[in-house]
């Protein structure tokens, strides 16, 4: 926000302080002044009088002027401006004047004629060029005839001003109004604030009607003013607007901008004579294209708030007016609008239309004092009467609006308890009075009524913050908070996740971090755990990052594709992250391997990534998590599975629930992601890490030796060996301590459609040495079970 100190001085006296002092004081109460600059440059600028002008003897566009610059001193100045003439009061830069950026005026000869100074245009004073009219740039600036010769030109014009660039915090949007900022400065300096009074106007009955048909407009006010004259604004108004970063247009537009600058309330004006029906309807539901004040056509959507006139669009509320009702040079009768609209809705409209105007920013940031609407309309009408020669002013038409009084109760002990101070009740009263907060007191209890423009005040802590600001943060002693000592520790789930990270890293995998957002074309690929729709962003940067992912595998495949494109063919990666769908969030672990996992050329050792490598990773993780083999099974994926290769992939099941998957990706998906020979695994950690795990029991090292026996079983080739081994372990769980499959054979001496599986069984009893009889009996029991359950028999 840019704040002119000369404009601020209209409401609270600050001209006896330097700009730096005011900046430091404002920063001390939380309004950080991020920078400051002078409105106009020039240190030796005076009002001059052109006594004589004659053509330059050696030029067809230069003139030689005799200019009085004060105390009877006349300087000869060569000037090339087309509008310079004798009898004018002008701005003169004397020799030695520094206009900034290395431009210093010197005595010189121009085409042989002596020139002692320069007659200036406003554009040469360092004012932002965007704020100037074309005539200000094309020629010199002519001052009023009563301008005193020899006086400081900037001071006479009101250009001796400093602009503060204040970084307002989001909760203090009210200070976008100069009056609200003046209240802050007045409280800071303990000075009175002078607010323009409600002027008594001779008002007539109005024929305007207002109909609000949406709850997105709490208050709407309209005021008819007739007989205005459109002309250039007086110099003081133009100067204040330019100093505040607003370009002057004409007196009508400038008055509306000045009132917004002063009160924070945006003003819109309609040409009364262009309205067939003198009725304003505020509603939503329009869906059409319309031309606005800037002459461009925009699409209006049903959710946009519209001020409708003559069944059409008179104004996109709070954003920009319609072209059909605009004020022009022929306007004599106008309707002033001052209203409050829903900020969030306006923000969506303004951003979509790319029309983030000054007015819309006031609504969006909540800078509106709705209770002040009637005063704003009165102020606007009074200025139209003063500066636009308004002939007739009509009564304001306002919708019913109940001002809700904010009352906050506060105690001195609460203030000091929160701030760690010892501020007296009397000092608190002084601060509240300086901020124009009315209150009543009973003992140390204060019942406070918050001013209507302070939309940020909702609870006692907000008032305490105001007390702290005005008391002075530098007066609040620094102290350490008193609190119980706590020991930082990881939750069980966090500990497991950290253990898995270390484990996989030790196994030679690299952790990656990929985007949580993905494209709709990939969001359902490899999804096993989410059964609801994906979560879509309201305003995505692009379609490729528009929805949250349901599986980590597509992201890892993209990473493998990237590495292969950069000649890195051996990729072993994993990621632990969250996946999302509507109302569901799951923590996943995904592993993806492609290429050579282990390769030692001089020993001729190599191991490519395959199904069994990934299965080993998963089994190792389960073992570390304390999940026994008996708690899960591996089930082949469906024959029509589109993401995983049938016959080379399996689901990890717990009961009837899928908690993970291991396998090779389907050739169709390999083609889609432009990868090949990729094996993946994905686990639902939200389930696995929250399983109830058996307590760890200590077992002594056995004192008695173990015995190993090998058996070879012949069975149908489609029978999962894993199931057979589990049945064996179940039968011999008391004595069998380990099983190892060391051979699977199909071919000669084995019937067609069958296979021979060789298994090494390790027996051990913690209480005695096993004899052959016990072991043989156990093997006979095992053979009976596998024959009954699987039709398997001992190979002979």
TrEMBL record:
Domain FDX-ACB: 702-795
GO cellular component terms given for this protein: phenylalanine-tRNA ligase complex
Top-rank lineage group of the source organism: Bacteria
Domain TRNA-binding: 39-154
Chief localisation class: cytoplasm
Residues bound to Mg(2+): 456, 462, 465-466
Entry EC no(s): 6.1.1.20
Keywords noted in UniProt: Aminoacyl-tRNA synthetase, ATP-binding, Cytoplasm, Ligase, Magnesium, Metal-binding, Nucleotide-binding, Protein biosynthesis, RNA-binding, tRNA-binding
Bound cofactor: record note: Binds 2 magnesium ions per tetramer.
Residue span(s) of domain B5: 403-478
Group of enzyme by EC: ligase
Catalytic activity line of the entry: tRNA(Phe) + L-phenylalanine + ATP = L-phenylalanyl-tRNA(Phe) + AMP + diphosphate + H(+)
Keyword Kinase: no
GO BP: any one term: phenylalanyl-tRNA aminoacylation
Statement: the UniProt record of this protein carries the keyword Protein biosynthesis: yes
Molecular function in Gene Ontology: ATP binding; catalytic activity, acting on a protein; magnesium ion binding; phenylalanine-tRNA ligase activity; transferase activity; tRNA binding
Alphabetized SMART domains for the sequence: B3_4, B5, FDX-ACB
Localization annotation: Cytoplasm
Cofactors named for this entry: Mg(2+)
Stated family: Belongs to the phenylalanyl-tRNA synthetase beta subunit family. Type 1 subfamily.
Subunit annotation: Tetramer of two alpha and two beta subunits.
Stated name of the protein: Phenylalanine--tRNA ligase beta subunit
Organism: Massilimicrobiota timonensis
């Amino acid at each position: 926000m840019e704040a002119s100190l000369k404009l601020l001085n209209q409401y609270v006296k600050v001209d006896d302080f330097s700009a730096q002092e005011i900046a430091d004081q404002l920063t001390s109460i939380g309004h950080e002044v991020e920078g400051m600059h002078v409105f106009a440059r020039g240190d030796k600028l005076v009002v001059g009088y052109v006594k004589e002008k004659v053509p330059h003897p050696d030029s067809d566009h230069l003139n030689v002027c005799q200019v009085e610059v004060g105390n009877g001193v006349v300087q000869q100045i060569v000037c090339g401006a087309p509008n310079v003439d004798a009898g004018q009061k002008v701005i003169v830069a004397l020799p030695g004047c520094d206009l900034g950026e290395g431009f210093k005026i010197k005595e010189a000869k121009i085409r042989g004629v002596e020139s002692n100074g320069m007659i200036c245009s406003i554009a040469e004073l360092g004012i932002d060029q965007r704020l100037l009219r074309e005539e200000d740039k094309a020629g010199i600036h002519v001052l009023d005839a009563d301008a005193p010769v020899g006086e400081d030109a900037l001071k006479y014009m009101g250009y001796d001003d400093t602009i503060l660039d204040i970084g307002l915090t989001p909760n203090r949007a009210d200070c976008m109004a100069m009056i609200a900022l003046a209240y802050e400065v007045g409280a800071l300096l303990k000075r009175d604030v002078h607010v323009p009074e409600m002027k008594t106007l001779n008002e007539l009955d109005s024929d305007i009607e207002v109909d609000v048909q949406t709850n997105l407009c709490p208050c709407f006010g309209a005021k008819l003013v007739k007989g205005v004259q459109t002309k250039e604004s007086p110099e003081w108004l133009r100067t204040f607007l330019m100093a505040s970063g607003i370009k002057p247009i004409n007196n009508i537009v400038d008055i509306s901008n000045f009132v917004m600058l002063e009160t924070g309330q945006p003003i819109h004006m309609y040409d009364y004579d262009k309205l067939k029906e003198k009725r304003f309807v505020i509603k939503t539901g329009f869906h059409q294209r319309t031309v606005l004040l800037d002459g461009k056509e925009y699409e209006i959507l049903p959710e946009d708030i519209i001020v409708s006139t003559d069944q059409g669009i008179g104004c996109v509320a709070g954003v920009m007016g319609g072209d059909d009702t605009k004020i022009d040079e022929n306007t004599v009768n106008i309707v002033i609008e001052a209203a409050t609209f829903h900020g969030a809705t306006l923000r969506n409209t303004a951003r979509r239309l790319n029309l983030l105007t000054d007015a819309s920013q006031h609504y969006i940031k909540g800078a509106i004092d709705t209770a002040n609407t009637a005063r704003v309309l009165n102020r606007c009408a009074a200025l139209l009467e003063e500066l636009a020669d308004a002939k007739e002013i009509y009564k304001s038409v306002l919708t019913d609006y109940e001002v809700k009084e904010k009352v906050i109760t506060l105690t001195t002990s609460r203030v000091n308890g929160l701030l760690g101070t010892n501020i007296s009740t009397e000092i608190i009263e002084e601060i509240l009075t300086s901020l124009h907060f009315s209150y009543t007191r009973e003992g140390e209890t204060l019942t406070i009524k918050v001013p209507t423009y302070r939309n940020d005040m909702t609870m006692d802590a907000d008032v305490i913050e105001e007390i702290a600001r005005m008391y002075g943060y530098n007066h609040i002693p620094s102290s350490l908070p008193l609190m119980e000592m706590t020991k930082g520790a990881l939750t069980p789930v966090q500990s497991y996740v950290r253990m898995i990270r270390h484990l996989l890293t030790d196994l030679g995998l690299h952790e990656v971090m990929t985007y949580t957002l993905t494209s709709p074309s990939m969001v359902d690929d490899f999804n096993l755990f989410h059964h609801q729709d994906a979560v879509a962003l309201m305003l995505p940067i692009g379609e490729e990052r528009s929805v949250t992912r349901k599986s980590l595998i597509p992201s890892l495949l993209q990473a493998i594709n990237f590495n292969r494109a950069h000649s890195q063919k051996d990729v072993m990666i994993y990621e632990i992250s969250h996946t999302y769908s509507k109302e569901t969030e799951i923590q996943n672990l995904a592993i993806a391997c492609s290429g050579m996992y282990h390769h030692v050329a001089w020993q001729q050792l190599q191991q490519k990534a395959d199904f069994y490598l990934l299965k080993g990773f998963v089994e190792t993780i389960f073992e570390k998590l304390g999940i026994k083999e008996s708690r899960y099974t591996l089930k082949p994926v469906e024959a029509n599975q589109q993401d995983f290769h049938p016959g080379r992939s399996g689901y990890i099941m717990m009961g009837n629930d899928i908690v993970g998957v291991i396998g090779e990706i389907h050739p169709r998906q390999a083609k889609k992601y432009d990868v090949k020979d990729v094996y993946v695994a994905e686990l639902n950690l939200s389930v696995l890490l929250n399983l109830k795990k058996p307590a760890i029991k200590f077992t002594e090292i056995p004192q008695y030796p173990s015995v190993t026996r090998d058996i070879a079983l012949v069975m149908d080739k489609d029978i999962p060996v894993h199931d057979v081994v589990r049945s064996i372990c179940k039968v011999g769980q008391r004595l069998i301590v380990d099983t190892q499959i060391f051979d699977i054979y199909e071919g000669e001496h084995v019937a067609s459609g069958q296979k021979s599986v060789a298994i090494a069984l390790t027996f051990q009893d913690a209480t005695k040495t096993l004899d052959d009889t016990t072991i043989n009996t156990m093997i006979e029991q095992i053979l009976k079970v596998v024959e009954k359950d699987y039709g398997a028999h001992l190979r002979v």
